[in-house]
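Chain and conformation:
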Amino acid sequence: QVQLVESGGGLVQAGDSLRLSCAASGRTFSRYVMGWFRQAPGKEREFVAAAWSGTMSYYADSVKGRFTISRDNAKNTVYLQMNSLKPEDTAVYYCAAGPGPGTYSPGSYIYWGQGTQVTVSS
């Protein structure tokens, strides 16, 4: 069982930055692929970024070059650094953990956090 708790969301202006954090419980954190997803009102949950233990990371085209995912296995924490935020980045952001090998689909993840709201004003 893994519990995930996100933090760091908020209201910012276009062009600003935010860093989301996701703290995980459990001793097997390093075995999971960690992902960030987001869901805007009226839209489906979509993939944002994922990181395997090690250096492999993956990004949605819409955030590539602006967002960076990182993980600290010693702290059981995964981060999402979001730069150059746009109004279209407004959504609830969810952290998720999965056993792999799937990376991009929400169905590939077993554990989910409660979500944190990110609102970007123009």
